[in-house]
Write a structure and sequence with these properties.
Number of domains of chain B: 3
Bound molecules: adenosine-5'-triphosphate, magnesium ion
Oligomer: heterodimer
Largest sheet of chain B: 7 strands, mixed
Distance between the termini of chain B: 24 Å
Order of helices and strands of chain A: HHHHHHHHHH
Mean pLDDT of chain A: 86
Low-confidence stretches of chain B: 311-325
Number of helices of chain B: 11
Strand order of the largest sheet of chain B: 6-7-8-3-9-10-15
Structural class of chain A: mainly alpha
């Protein structure tokens, strides 16, 4: 059994190829973690049913409650699905596979990018399932093709923002359990926003936070695109928030990755 | 630099916070040879390997691998080396074949070539049947084999193996030894760390002993064994008086004493004439020794002989001068 070494010849490297390989890897790992996927779809679906059938009657929003609450449920779901990126990243860092990748000259950007891309794929699957359930129980969006495109764009931007933020958080956490804490944070964020009840019905001291936190403009934009409510400047605010979060998170992730692997 | 050196290390230092782990490590490894870094838990073996494999930066000193500086030329170094860490680094949720194919892609192979390379390595490591199973279901030994296979995908010229056989049973360990021997035969340079003297003895052309952040002994395994006996004759005295007499008779040859157990370890080369002579000399009348066993020297014995202290996990302190043997 001989093993001819590539004596002094460099192995060819391809950063784009590496990134694609990492995307395939992360998507495959996600697709085999069925429990996580089921939880991510079931939980928001249950919350949707809970709000629509249990609380819906008592909440006065001016439209059918399902129509009102769906964008919020979508955002809740995406936040939760994206947050799992943190767990994947922490596992890679703690279980030593990152050392193997680095010793093969695979960049941190390729590894993290793979996880974010996989998050986008998971989110797509979860969103489609949630929308199907919503339509089954009576959700009737008014959106035309242009509005749908806009909604998909908004969701994608939000997913990127949350996934990169989760990736950065995953680099901070030392255990997968710790990384899971990010999911809780993300799960709570939609509550003090216009996701489930109009902000005006909240106590006065919450208005400032609820109006100005990133989730509110994203939800208002989605609601406007899907069900025809006024959007105002929410679209710009949403785009600004998400782009800003992506920028901050990727820079943070780059710094943390360098620090973790020094 | 000399052309035939695969690894050159000079004055390597590394601290984590206030804890100094390496305090001036010097090493050279000839191209195509097998080099073993021997040391107890916490002696800095993994730290050394990580620096050489470009994963960690030394605080001081220089290291060249395949003729290239591990800091400035790290990207080129990475294309010539592979690292098999102390803990298996493969995806449990992918199959063995998928893991290897992924490594092949990362090494620039595509399509058929990647699949063929994966299949070849699965065969070679006796994993052909398990190749389509998720790695999660593999035994510890299978995992280590796959891990090593993964590091060979890119045909590296320098291979780092961090404790490749720790936690393996005898059969898996021997299989691993065969692989390393094969690799060495093909002109690849192997740098491995181990806690087992026997392993270093079996595999390595040269051995260095790491302790207290320095290389305290370096040489061929034969040279090292000449300094540190390969075997120990463990004697159990019949009573405390006999024990005292045995210790006096053994003098400097006593490698270890345990008065509570009436136990005395004496160095020997393990041959029948030597053992017979020792028994006769220490117990001429045949009334002091209750029973005896012969065992291969452990790393602890090496340490006691070389440093005069037992190998303790995680200790760091300045050591005596390097013994060149
Ligand atoms: N990242 C780190 N931060 C702080 N201390 C560290 C770090 N890495 C290693 N150490 C310390 O450095 C010392 C040497 O560790 P190293 O892992 O190199 O030892 P080793 O010889 O490989 O041990 P083992 O046989 O247990 O694998 C240990 O005391 C360890 O606690
Ligand atoms: Mg170690």
């Amino acid at each position: 059994m001989s093993e001819p070494a590539l004596a002094e010849r460099d192995r060819p490297r391809s950063p784009t190829g590496d990134t694609l390989t990492m995307v395939r890897r992360s998507v495959r790992l996600s697709s085999r973690n069925l429990e996580a996927m089921l939880t991510s779809v079931m939980l928001p679906a249950m919350i949707m049913l809970l709000f629509v059938y249990l609380f819906g009657g008592a909440i006065e929003t001016g439209t059918a409650y399902l129509t009102y609450v769906l964008p919020g449920v979508l955002i809740l779901c995406m936040g939760f699905v994206s947050a799992q990126t943190a767990v994947s990243v922490t596992q890679d860092m703690e279980e030593g596979i990152i050392d193997r990748f680095r010793s093969m000259d695979v960049s941190g950007a390729a590894v993290l990018g793979g996880h974010v891309a996989a998050s986008a794929v998971r989110n797509t699957v979860a969103t489609v399932i949630l929308l199907l359930i919503a339509v089954l129980i009576g959700f009737r969006p008014t959106a035309g093709p242009v509005e749908w495109l806009g909604a998909i764009g908004t969701l994608l931007l939000f997913v990127l923002a949350m996934s990169w933020l989760a990736a950065a958080f995953g680099l901070l956490a030392r255990t997968p359990e710790g990384a899971n804490g990010f999911a809780f944070f993300v799960m709570f964020l939609p509550y003090p926003s216009s996701a489930f009840v109009p902000i005006e019905t909240m106590p006065g001291w919450l208005h400032g936070f609820a109006r100005n936190q990133p989730v509110t403009p994203v939800i208002e934009t989605l609601r406007g695109l899907l069900t025809g409510t006024p959007i105002g400047n929410s679209a710009w605010l949403a785009a600004g928030w998400c782009a800003g979060l992506v920028l901050v998170s990727t820079v943070l992730a780059a710094v943390l990755f360098r620090r973790r692997t020094a | 630099m000399a052309v035939d050196l695969a690894i050159e290390v000079a004055g390597l230092e590394k601290s984590f916070g206030a804890v100094s782990v390496l305090s001036g490590v010097d090493l050279t490894v000839r191209r195509g040879s097998v080099f073993a870094l021997l040391g107890p838990n916490g002696s800095g073996k993994t730290t050394t390997v990580r620096i050489l494999a470009t994963l960690s930066r030394a605080d001081a000193g220089v290291a060249r691998v395949a003729g290239l500086d591990v800091v400035h030329d790290r990207h080129r170094v990475r294309r010539r080396i592979s690292l098999t860490g102390q803990y298996a680094a493969i995806d449990g949720l992918q199959t063995g074949e998928e893991n290897l194919r992924m490594m092949a892609w990362l090494c620039g192979l595509r399509g058929r070539q990647a699949s063929e390379r994966a299949g070849e390595l699965l065969d070679r490591f006796g994993l052909a049947d398990a190749g389509r199973r998720r790695v999660k279901t593999y035994s510890g030994g299978m995992r280590r084999r796959l891990d090593l296979a993964a590091s060979l995908v890119g045909r590296p010229s320098v291979i780092f193996l961090d404790e490749p056989t720790t936690g393996l049973d005898v059969r898996s360990r021997q299989a691993m030894w065969e692989v390393v021997t094969d690799l060495a035969g093909s002109g690849v340079t192997v740098f491995l760390t181990t806690q087992y003297l026997e392993e270093a003895d079996r595999l390595a052309d040269r051995v260095a002993v790491l302790d207290g952040g320095r290389v305290i002994a370096e040489g061929t395994s034969a040279e090292l064994k000449a300094r540190v006996a390969g075997y120990l004759l463990d004697l159990t005295a019949v009573d405390a008086t006999a024990f005292g007499e045995l210790v006096r008779a053994a003098g400097g040859r006593a490698a270890s004493t345990d008065p509570a157990a009436l136990n005395l370890g004496v160095t020997t080369d393990g041959t029948a004439p030597d053992v017979r002579a020792l028994l006769g000399e220490l117990d001429p009348a045949g009334e002091r020794i209750g029973h005896f066993t012969i065992r291969t020297a452990t790393l602890d014995d090496v340490f006691i002989t070389l440093t005069g202290h037992a190998a303790e996990p995680g200790h760091t302190r300045p050591t005596e001068e390097t013994v060149h043997v």
